[in-house]
Amino acid sequence: MFYRQNTSLVLRRNKNNQLKSKYGITIEQYEAMVAEQNGRCGLCFKLPYGNGPASVLHVDHDHETDVIRGLLCMKCNSSIERVDNVSNWLELADIWC
């Protein structure tokens, strides 16, 4: 019953816990980053669109140092992850195209 009456509060608390656990930031810090980037991806400058994960900006961080670089749309975040994880990804993508 509590969940039904307080769905937005529960979802916000869950998001805050996720951000704290994964990136060491609060939801307020995340929202400040969104505002600083005018709600746009830090790489392509587009507004996030779609449903589910595509509808929000994702925290981009260096996987070795955990330093947060900014917020990215799902497409840019996935692309950066590929570049980080496959040393010659850009070269392979260039050959593919």
Q: What's the layout of helices and strands?
A:
Elements: H1 2-5, H2 7-23, H3 27-36, E1 58-61, E2 68-72, H4 74-85, H5 89-96
Antiparallel strand pairs: 1-2
3D structure, described in words:
The chain has 97 residues and is mainly alpha-helical. It is built from 5 helices and 2 strands, in the order αααββαα. It is elongated and about 55 Å long.
Low-confidence stretches are none
Radius of gyration: 16 Å
Shape: elongated
Give the distance, in angstroms, between the N- and C-terminal Cα atoms: 53 Å
Mean pLDDT: 89
| Strand arrangement, major sheet | 1-2
Share of β-strand residues: 5-15%
Q: Compute the number of helices.
A: 5
Number-wise, the strands total 2
The helix fraction, in percent, is: 40-55%
Structural class: mainly alpha
Order of helices and strands: HHHEEHH
Instruction: Report the biggest beta sheet as strand number plus sense, adding barrel if it closes.
Output: 2 strands, antiparallel
Summarize the structure.
The protein has helices spanning 2-5, 7-23, 27-36, 74-85, 89-96, and strands spanning 58-61, 68-72. It is mainly alpha-helical and 97 residues long. Strand 1 (58-61) and strand 2 form a beta hairpin.
Task: Throw out a few tags for this protein.
mainly alpha; 97 residues; 53% helix; 2 strands
